[in-house]
Amino acid sequence: MPNRLADATSPYLLQHADNPVDWWPWGPEAFEEARRRGVPVLLSVGYAACHWCHVMAHESFEDAGLAGYLNERFVAVKVDREERPDVDAVYMEAVQAATGQGGWPMTVFLTPDKEPFYFGTYFPPRPRHGMPSFRQVLEGVDAAWRDRREEVAEVAGRIRADLAERAAVYSAGAHNPPGEADLHQALVTLSREFDQARGGFGGAPKFPPAMVVEFLLRHHARTGSAAALEMAVRTGEAMARGGIHDQLGGGFARYSVDAGWVVPHFEKMLYDNALLLRAYLHLWRATGSGSARRVALSTADFLLRELRTPEGAFASALDADSLDEETGQSVEGAYYVWEPGQLVDLLGPADAATAARLFTVTADGTFEHGTSVLQLLTEPGESTEDFAEYETIRARLLQARAARPAPARDDKVVAAWNGLAIAALAETGALLERPDLVEAAERAADLLLAVHLTSDGRLLRTSRDGRAGANAGVLEDYADTAEGFLALYAVTGEAEWLQLAGGLLDTVLKHFTDEASGALYDTADDAEELIRRPQDPTDNATPSGWTAAAGALLTYAAYTGSDRHRTAAERALGVVGALAGRAPRFIGWGLAVAEALLDGPREVAVVGAPGDPATGALRRAALLATAPGAVVAVGTPGETEVPLLADRPLVDGAPTAYVCRHFACDAPTTDPAALAARLGVEVG
């Protein structure tokens, strides 16, 4: 019989709706029940594409005997971390502080007052590798709760005090935004952590550093640093060649389990692919790399083909696991890996040998049971004939793979991640002349407006099947959606997108900002009260809401001349200076925004008739600019809706471009090459 999760909109919660565990969704009712019964709360946090979440569910939460014990001694609460990032953030911080590590599934035991007192991640059904079984953990916590309640209360109090002390660090006072020396030190630190042999930073597991690549490209554009460009290019090339990149269907897996990008953890997330799409687009813009262009387009096509929902927005993720046709079991990576014999059966001996060479499929394999994750260690296309052969083989393998049982899709729509996708698709469509990508970005933005934006201008975080969830948007939802709308304005010239972004950012200033320090909170001042108000400026797999808001505020200020928004951006960037030299890998987007601040950012106004080819040439030169964070406004003479376009006359009757910083402008030009030179790019 289904439990209380049966009416959820979250695919992750629905995966647990038929468990014998008597799950409660997060809410006051669950904690009231725990208080009434005098028992602790088991909080289990995960997400739909999480491999080990599935494993623990099958091993423990589907076990009727264990569920009976759990239901008797605890109130069990299940949370989708993607729906409630605020709940996840608060308790993950406690887990990491106490254990030195974190991850999902996250398992936390709470008092009925929501105070954590014991934590972990995955627990096996039987003791192994030094880990207790989940049953042993439950019995130990139950015994402590019944027999040592004072000790439990003392531990919970210490943890709460520690979290409050950590929160105070970010709101201690305003700092100046990072300067030239801070950004140089960030580059020096990154150079020390750069993997010279394999690209990227640090060791295994290795995550795609899209935001750090963005910083490196902007730093190169502003300073000419060859080291910054080399790290960005080598990292992009290494990821594109490795198994983390889907060599058949495009897109990237969440991370590589090894340091060489060979074997991925196969889940594919919307946010990773949106960020990497933009990073590869900017790599192409900076270098003209054909490989970067190919990867950008294939990633965009992956988003449209596999993650776009019927309503026009983008689903959250594809699962790591899928059905193995031979065993009938759900297996990680089964959809993606190949054996040499499968190539022969599909392609015949000659083409199979070519495919094995192209994609590094060997008898020994690179994954489990002699299977290989496809890699592309040599860029195809030394000749037109070579590229055609590669494309033919790739298309045949992709078609055959499509007949395999596909990974499950988490089809909930998250506002923040759709904002990232909107920005990436709009920009890619404009720069690579793919109008269908711009149209896809507009359609996703329309869905956010119709379903996620409430009548009072507030955002809801999630929707599914066109029906909004009940969870309020957090800071990253407002910031990333604003970023998407600002990119749409730059590409389409429709002032409504700029105005909508401004409304979202006004909400950020009113409800998410500490007026005294300029610090930003992840939740609004009228959101549900947790044991502490979550707040974190560091990047994880996505830009932090804090640094994403700083970037959107700075861009909006450049379009409108709003000193209020620019000042807020500068104050928010103060924390970046404190972290730039010590932890640049975890503040990459903040560093990228700081590069834009130091460069201006440049403000480009193009005036001319919309259909005039000369207007289009100036617009394209501006969009191709590598100047960090440059903003582009295109309109007709006399337009007043957008302050950057106001009072911009034509020169000698011809379409004209103005390049400004802080609304102080250079002499206007009608020459696309001259415009490009001012913005740090050559037009061929």
Write up what this structure looks like:
The structure is a single chain. With 684 residues, the chain is α+β, with helices and mostly antiparallel strands. 49% of the residues lie in helices and 10% in strands. The chain is built from 25 helices and 19 strands. The strands form six sheets. The protein has a five-stranded mixed sheet with strand order 1-3-2-4-5, with helices on both faces. Strands 17-16-18-19 form a four-stranded mixed sheet, with helices on both faces. Strand 14 and strand 15 (467-468) form a beta hairpin. The longest helix has 22 residues, at 149-170. It is globular, with a radius of gyration of 26 Å.
Could you write a compact summary of the structure shown?
The chain has 684 residues and is α+β, with helices and mostly antiparallel strands. Helix 24 links the parallel strand 16 (603-607) and strand 17. The termini are far apart.
Count of β-strands: 19
Stretches where pLDDT is under 50 for at least 5 consecutive residues are none
- Tell me the strand order in the biggest sheet: 1-3-2-4-5
Largest sheet: number of strands, sense, barrel closure: 5 strands, mixed
Cα distance, first to last residue?
66 Å
- Given the helix and strand composition, which structural class is it? alpha+beta
Mean pLDDT metric: 93
Q: DSSP strand (E) fraction? A: 5-15%
Q: What is the global morphology?
A: globular
- In DSSP terms (H or I, runs of 4 or more residues), the helix count works out at 25
